[in-house]
Amino acid sequence: WDSDPEQFINFSLLSHLSVLLRDKVPRGTHVKGSIPYPRAFTGKDIVSTIQSQIQNACFGVGDRRLALQVARSLQNQLFFYEVEWGSRELRDGVEDVYMFLDDAEDTRIEREELPNGVVTLLTKCYAPDCSDEARCYSYSCPRKGITAGLKEEAAAAEVVEKEWQDTVSPALLASLSPKEIRRQTIIFKLIAREEAYLRDLDTVESVFIRPLLNASPPVVENPAEFVEAIFSNISELRGCNHRLLEVLCVRQREHAPLIRMTGDIFLEAATEFRFVYPVYMGNHSMAEKRLKDELDTNSKFRLFIEQRSRQYTRDGDGPRLDLRHFLNRPVEHLQRYPFLLEALYHETESNNADGDFLMEALQSIRKLQSMAQLRTFQLAMGLGPSAKWEWHDLVTPDIRRLLTKEECKRQAIIFELIKTEMAYVRDLELLTTLYMHPLCNAEPAIIPSDRLQQFTVDVFHNHTELYFHHRKFLDKLHEIQREEHPRIYSITAVVFDAVLNFREAYLEYVPNYPIAHYRIDEEIAKNAAFAAFIEQCLRHPDSQRLHMKHFISRPIPRLQRYELLLKGILEQTPASHPDRQDIPQVIELLSALCKETEPGVTSAKQKVELWQYNSKLIFKAGESVNMDLLNENRSLIYTGKLLRQPDNSGLRGNDWQELFVLVFDNYFVMTRQKDKDDATKYHVYRRPIPLDLMTLVNFTDPPTQRGAGLLRNLRGARDGSVRDLDTSLGTGNGLRTTDTTDSRSLYPFTLHHNGRLGGTVILYAESAQARTEWKQKLEEALGLRNIVQESNKVFEVELLSTETFLVPSMSSMNTTPAWGHEGSITGKVTCSVPFNTPDGRGLVAIGCEEGVWIGYRHDSRSLRRVLHVKMVTQCAMLEDFGLFLVCADKALFAYHIEALVPSTLHSSQTMQTPQKLNGSREVAFFSVGAINGRTLVIYVKKKGVTASNFYVLEPVIDKINEKAKTTTGGLGSRLFRAPRSDWFRSYREFILPSEAFDIVFLKARIAILCAKGFEIMDLAEYLKSVSIPVKEDSRLAALSKRLDSCRPLGMFRSTDDEFLLCYDGKQFGVYVDKHGEPSRNGVTVEWEGTAEHVAFHPPYILLFDTRFIEIRRVETGLLTQIIPGNDVRCIWDGRGLNSNYFPTLGDGQDAIIQEARVHGAMNAPEPPPVPGLRSSKPSVQHVFELIPTIPLYLPGSLASPSNMMMYYPQSSSPPHSPTLQPVR
User: Can you give the pLDDT at residue 35?
Assistant: First the structure.
């Protein structure tokens, strides 16, 4: 007995059931015939108690009709009785009141025996596999009797009295007036219809909802969500109407046989209906659409509905149940209430208080219908028939007649604001559900994963933030509409609050929409899968055949629409209304918001225009220039058409060329515009001119004459695509069309390109005004470029020597120079190297034609000549060994650094004599580096242009540190010392059958720069070598031919697996992989100048032209900085130390060494000559080092001051400053 005793109950035996029910039936005081009965219960109470016990214990039976049959069996055996001892059969309702025989207060009757009998429908089947869902094969299975028995009971339950008159005595009927008879008949029919309505709602619950939720496997995806969408709050409706029916039945029982009051009941019910029926009716149209869609697309669900409809019917011969009919029942039932209540009101005597209640209930029900219609409108969100509803469609004529014409217009405009807000929120939601989520979750991917995130940011931006704000705004509008409809007092406060909330979101979103449109068009043009996706979305019914760009642009006009609607409301608002003062403030706030977005839109349109030009630029084969036009900070300054006279002077005077010129913030580009297949392309006429290398020469030359044929076209309509760009983007960069006095006059202006392929460029404008405008724009472009370069330069020039090194000036070339005294001619500076002494002094050695000077860095006056040797070409420092190497007059010498700059006067090394390392060989050049931890010195002797001899030496630390033997005597004894061991030993000697120019130390090999190209040699493994770049690929035949006529300048690591090979002659660079094969499809990087030397300061390469230093990114080849000068040359490229430096760039970070790695020399500017005087003053050479800087980045793109807007898009973060990496 420790276990639950109910587990031993057999529910098919009435005796067991009676014992259980005796304690579980709820009792209470119930009134019948105006007599209260304590400890009583209704038929519904006993049926509900039986149902609760058997539905889980016996086969999951969910139908109350089986419980009703069991209750009637117990009633027939007098287990309980009707308080008035009526003979009517027990019903599942509250009409009758029952009590147990032994439960009276003053009597206690002991039952001799319990009710007995077997409930056949509750007996268990003998087949072990028999269940509710899968009936067994037996014809006599008890479960098979459940359906038949319940159907028979259903038919019996529907047999009710047809007329109220049949339920009362003839004597009572004769005493009533005809009006009262009709009134009681209406009440009786109203209760009957309420019962039928509840049976239908019960059927929905038992036949459709519960089986749908319990189906295994599920017949729909996410059954709970589907049931919520289809049936909405139908269970709440059932509860409300159950309570209404119970109260009606209780009133009928208490007032029997005549019901005197019903209006109060319906008035209370209408209050409860207000919270449930509008929700259901508002969702009804969407539920019908969802049901139709599911039936059309889900065969499992369609089969499920058919099976449920066939299995459960109203009677044996009746039609099958239609789910659509049941879904429509609450709508129809609510619509019947006004007719019944109005009929009941007309049949009620004027002196009956129920009439007032009925009228109030009737008005509440009618208002409830209006609220339901309003809820339908709100939940539809602009879909279906309700999308065409206006304010007057939801307001009765009686109410409209009570309002003034102005107030009706005002309410109609408020309604329109709410209606359009619903459509707007729906479009924002569609942008997520129809486009963004399918794109992000597509399998296979529609947009490659490496571009997907950037695409979604550029296109959708912060539209989810807009949706959040407007969804909240719409909910507040709906709440006001539900509370105040049909006459809304004011929505100004809600609008004002919304504008303040979404202001920042619009300031970010609106400027991005031109970029979003461009990205969509660009993706459609190059991605067939995306184009198919867009076409598929166009066919989606929710899109209404509107393109994706329509939904992207929806927020743009919405702000202006608010202004128009608020102005309309203001016009119809009475003078005494508070909105008269409040609405202008909201309009002013909206207007300010629109104006604040305009600069960002203009900036974005200019950026898109720049991108469009970038995609339409066509370069000649092999002449492509990466102008970095897709950089976030890039901007277009000006565009327009100009004329140029051909270089061939033999052409006729009217054979002019029309050019379309683009001025970017970094390049000046001349193109020829060509139209083909409705597309405009801009073919680059000549190499783009960097603004850093462009000079404005002359804008004052007189006009020249020419033929008028081409000029007429120049003044006519511009090309369609360009005109569209100017019109849509508002650039206004077209040519002026002001008439001149002579249509054949052209106005020249002269530019100069200071680069390798440059020279003088003369262009012609159509008018003096146009030429003046070009001058203004070009001056602005150059000025802005100078500002940007000054703020973003990557290297600063810091002088090491200002007055020490002199060369004869051009005006004193015929004079005899003075030698050997301070301020004398030193000759051209050729080399330098910085180093540190053992005692920590930071020094620099500078070599020139007259010797070697050493002094403190950054102290020009400390420089002193330490070596009096001629024709110094190279110098290097082996700090670990204390040796200084000098190549002078084709000989290589090694000096102990203590002998040149002693740290103490009594050091033993101060008396060390230098060693000549090359013997009798002539040294062309030498190089110092380390391979596998071994410091090596390689010098080269050339044998004409056919071969080069290489001699590899290794320093011996023990011999270098060996103390010099001191000798006594004079000068002769010091000159004829005993021979000492050499400081270097021979490591390798080999011959290369080609003219060598330089040697670069790699990690484990050396790269020899020779006439054949780059020879990569392994000194450790039998001098194996390989030539790069590999030229066998037939696709790179043009590149191979070009390489054959070039001389290599340098080899630099750009990434972990890639090198940049630099050449002179043709002046270009090419990337190769670690196997020496050209990468990046053989695309070359073209130098702007004539590079005579190239240096490497990661992550930049520095190309030295005599006129300027050209600085480029090593991994991209992009031009970064131009440093101008006079007779500029590189004197130290970072080598010459006993360590090699090839850092690898980090992932996405710039590794910049913050110490100088490059030295240079240039002539100082000479003062202008004085007429009649010849100056004999020599020219000064400035020796300098290039110090890397931490770049300063402007937060936005730079545009012309005449039309630029100071707007910095929030989505474009500035580039990060490069990380500082210490020198190792």
Answer: 62
Tell which residue, 244, 248, 266, has the closest CA to residue 361. Answer: 266
CB 80 within 8 A of CB 137: no
Whole-angstrom distance, CA of residue 513 vs CA of residue 502: 17
CA distance 557 to 506: 12
Within 10 angstroms of residue 314's Cβ, the number of other Cβ atoms is 16
- HSE (CB half, 13 Å, CA atoms) of 1162? 23
> In terms of C-beta density within 10 A (0-12 exposed, 13-18 middle, 19 or more buried), how is residue 1051 classed?
buried
Of all helices (H) and strands (E), which one includes residue 600? helix 579-616
Query: What's the CATH fold of domain 394-618?
Result: Dbl Homology Domain; Chain A (1.20.900)
On whether the CB atoms of residues 748 and 779 are closer than 8 A, the answer is no
Q: Are 9 and 16 in contact (CB under 8 A)?
A: yes
CATH class of 177-380: mainly alpha
| Cα–Cα dist 1116/1113, whole Å | 6
How many C-beta neighbours within 10 Å does residue 1004 have?
Answer: 11
Give the DSSP letter of residue 543.
G
In 10 A of CB 170, how many CB atoms?
A: 8
Provide Rg for the chain, Cα atoms: 50
Choices 3.10.580.10, 2.30.33.40, 3.30.9.100, 2.30.29.30: CATH for 622-647+655-704+744-792 = 2.30.29.30
What architecture is the 14-122 domain classified under in CATH? Orthogonal Bundle (1.10)
Please give the share of the chain, as a percent, with pLDDT higher than 90: 38
Spans of the chain below 50 pLDDT: 1, 59-60, 105-110, 147-149, 151-161, 314-319, 650-651, 708-740, 814-822, 966-980, 1139-1149, 1192-1224
Query: Which tokens in the block code for residue 1175?
Result: 């100056």
Please work out, in degrees rounded to the nearest 5, the angle formed at the alpha carbon of residue 205 by the alpha carbons of 315 and 195: 60
How many residues are there in the chain? 1224
* Cross-strand partners of 1158: none
Closest CA relative to residue 496, chosen from 378, 596, 588: 588
* Backbone torsions φ then ψ of 1209, nearest 5 degrees: -60, 135
